[in-house]
Amino acid sequence: RLAGAREHAAQAAHLANELRDGPRRALRIHVLGAFRVDRVGGTISARDWGSRKPRDLLKVLVAKRGGLVRRDVLLDVLWPDEAPDRAGKKLSVALSTLRSLLDPAKSFPADHFLTADRAAVSLRTEHCDGDLERFLACAEAGLGALAVGDPGASAALTAAETAYSGEPFEEDAYEEWARPIRDVVRTTYVAVIRALADLAGRNGEHDRATRLLLRVLDGDPDDERAHLALVRSLRADQRHGEAHRMYRTYCDRMEQIGVEPAPYPAVASLGRAGERGIEPLTTEPESAVLPVTPLPTERSGEPTGRWTGR
Hints:
The chain has 310 residues and is an alpha+beta fold. It is 53% helix and 7% strand. Strand 5 (114-116) and strand 6 form a beta hairpin.
C-alpha cells in the first residue's frame, strides 16, 4: 500500500512538472472556470464554434471523463424536443463539425480525439491535455499518499491546488449533465484544501492553515469541522480575539441549521484527541475521485455552493 501511495505521489509530481514546463499537446481543454479549447493554431473562438451544439457536445464528453456516452443519451441532452431520427442526423453533423474544429488541418486520423460508432461516442482523453484530469489525478495521488504518511503528499496536494482554477463548467451550473462532475470536483477540492490546512497546522504554518480553512468555509459556511479547525488554528497562532469572533460565527451558523455547537474549551483543547471538535481536520480520506461520472436522468434543483479557487 505504501509503495502504491508513493507511486501516486511520483505521478502527481510528474504532472506538476508538466503543468509548469511540460510539452504542449495538440489539444488542450479547459473546463475548470471558464471553458476554453486550445488547438494547433490558437484558441477556438466563439465565432469558430458557430452553433452551440458542437461546443455542448464536447463539454458532455469531457464531463464523462473518457467514458462512452450512448447516442440516445446525447440526443436527450442536446435535442430533448426533437424526434429521434431528426436529432440523430443533427448529432452526426455536430460530430463532424467538432472533429473539424479540433483538428482543422486533419493532422490526425478521424478517431484521434473522438471515437463514435452506431451506439456511443467518447472523447479520447489520452490524446488531449485537460485541466480536469490533471486536477483529479494530482488530488487522488496526494490524498492517497497522505493516507499512509508518505512525505510526497504535500507536493502532490499542492500540485492539485495549483491545477484547480474554479468549478467545472461554470457557465452550465444548471445543466443536469454537469451536476455529477461538479459534485466530484467540489468534494475533491475540499478534501485537498482540508489536507493542506492540516499539514500546514502540523508544520506550525498557522496563518496558511487559517487562509485555507477560510476558503473551505467560503464554499460551505456550514462545515462544522472547518469552523472548529479554524478556531484551533487561530488559537495556536495566538490570535485569540479572532478565534473568539470565529467561534461566535460558528455558533450562529450551527444554530441556523439546528445543530448544537461544540463548547469552546473543547475547540481549544489540543491534547485530548477524540473529543468532538478536537480531532484532526483530516482523517484517512475516502476516494472522492470517480473514474467515470454517470449522466443523471432526473432534473435537479439549484446548484450548491460555488468554489472560486485561489
